Amino acid sequence: MTENTTAADLALGRSAVRRRILVLLMAEPERRLHLRELQRRAGTSPGTASRELGRLVAAGLVGREAEGHQVYFRATSSPFAIAVRNLILVATEPDPGPMPLSPADPESADLRSDLRHLKPHASAPEPPSPPRVVQTRPSELNEPKRPDALGLKVAESLARILRPIYGERLVGLYLYGSRAHGESKADADVEVLIVLDAIERYGDELERSSAACASLSLEFGLIVSRVFVSGQTWSNRTDGHLMAIRSDVVSV
Fold first, then answer.
1. Is 213 left (phi over 0), alpha (psi -120 to 50) or beta?
2. Domain count, the chain
3. Three-state DSSP class for 163?
4. pTM of this prediction?
């Protein structure tokens, strides 16, 4: 059970919300779910659900479909997604040793119900430990942030793979998120933003880069996620998440 849990942590990270969302989608791979439905069933806020779905979409595990003003999500059928689904099945096999979680816990009961769609009698993952509060010294406030060495290494490896694939279409590749400003945990995702000259079909770019991200995820034991934007959007758009991302990216 310990080896299985560790494998799941390496593939999915330690976010309990991300696991719940992925289990919900992989339990019914032929069905698509709206953001609000996923947020409600995962027991989290809309903002957290949106952020975790963005990471799963960037990793190629979940597909995003828009119809008018409505956005739906469903599990993809990529080789990496199938491998992760099998990993979840193995990681959630019941362990006869430890005492099971209390059935009175409604959150645990809901997750057990979702896991049964994947495999009978699967148990829910343990809840994450409470966040540790770190006191910041006044002198630390003015210290410049340094990018995470492992994050840079993985991003550079991805750049070496993608440059021959995209050629002149590749305008830029950037490391962003917690690893870009040196505040990441050991198992944090490596988040990469890829700027192309133009994007006609976003799903095609995810498919084209899926094998590279999957290979690096397995090699380094963490999730390598990517987001694509066009050169025009990257240069001109000043609303939404791009403005925040642009302020602390590291060019690779």
1. alpha
2. 2
3. helix
4. 0.48
Per-residue pLDDT at 51: 85
Give per-residue burial for 29-54: e unless 16+ CB within 10 Å, then b: eeebbebeebbebbebeeeebeebbb
pLDDT tens per residue, range 157-173: 999 999 999 999 999 99
Burial grade of 151 (CB within 10 A; 0-12, 13-18, 19 or more): buried
Sheet order of strands, 62-67 included? 33-34, 70-75, 62-67
149, two tokens: 């060495």
Question: Which regions of the chain does DSSP assign to beta strands (E)?
Answer: 33-34, 62-67, 70-75, 170-176, 190-196, 224-230, 250-251
What residues make up the domain containing 240?
149-251
CATH number of the domain bearing residue 226: 3.30.460.10
Instruction: With respect to residue 133, please indicate whether it lies within any of the assigned structural domains.
Output: no
Sheet holding 224-230, edge to edge: 224-230, 190-196, 170-176, 250-251
Could you tell me the two tokens for 209?
């880069």
Q: Which of 126, 212, 133, 125 is nearest to 170 (CA)?
A: 212
The conformation of residue 249, written as its DSSP 8-state character, comes to -
